Amino acid sequence: GERMKKYLTIPNLLTVFRMLGTSALAFLPPLTVPFFALYLFCGATDIADGMIARKTGAVSDFGARLDSVADILFYAVTLFRLFPTLLVTLPLPVWWLIGAALAFRLCAYLAAACRYRRFAALHTYLNKCTGALLFALPLLLLTPVAVPFSFAVCVMGMLASAEELCLHLCSPAYDANVKSLLCLLRARGEKRQS
């Protein structure tokens, strides 16, 4: 009844639609019109679920975790489908940067698991920026800017992952709403002054 209503919100349903769309992406030929149409649908639901959650006051811990799982699924499926194209398009230094960014990301998740005894993926400004760049990458993959753009995505991803790792290591408690390391340091400074 009431508990089910708490989970069946429009933002959460949009996230579920994104997960279903992502699952369908796994079966479509990559870099085709149907693939990109569904890819853009998944991106649109990702933007809409957060906006609607904030506007309607439906922001919840469950919704944030569901969104993080949907993000991970989306990027995993996209990477899996585009890997053959990425392999021939991207030079070796980009792959080293991808490995470094993923190592930082894994360390951030492990730090959160050890400190908070839970899965925690923060929706920081840098993470959102990385997500936007990552989302744009497949759309630019067959263009001349693919390689320099990939470098930019990797650098942003490393910065975002390093910041998230620092946040998990420096925060006194888990705070899903922290937007940046600067915000955390500013809040600590204000707390000391009061």
Q: How far apart are the termini?
A: 44 Å
Strand portion: under 5%
Number of DSSP strands? 0
Q: How does the overall form come out from the CA principal axes? A: globular
Largest pleated sheet: none
Spell out the helices and strands N to C. Answer: HHHHHHHH
Figure out the total of helices.
8
- Average pLDDT, rounded to a whole number, is 90
Classify the secondary structure makeup into a structural class.
mainly alpha
Poorly predicted regions are none
Percent helix, as a range, is over 70%
Task: Using the CA coordinates, give the radius of gyration.
Answer: 18 Å
Tell me what the structure shows.
- The chain is 79% helix and 0% strand.
- It contains 8 helices and no strands.
- α2 runs parallel beside α4 (61-89) and α6 packs antiparallel against α7 (146-170).
State the gist of this model.
This protein is mainly alpha-helical.
Question: Characteristics of this structure?
Answer:
79% helix
Give the SSE map:
Elements (H helix, E strand, L loop, with lengths): L1 H6 L2 H16 L7 H24 L4 H29 L2 H25 L8 H16 L5 H25 L10 H13 L1
Helix pairs in contact: 2-3, 2-4, 5-7, 6-7
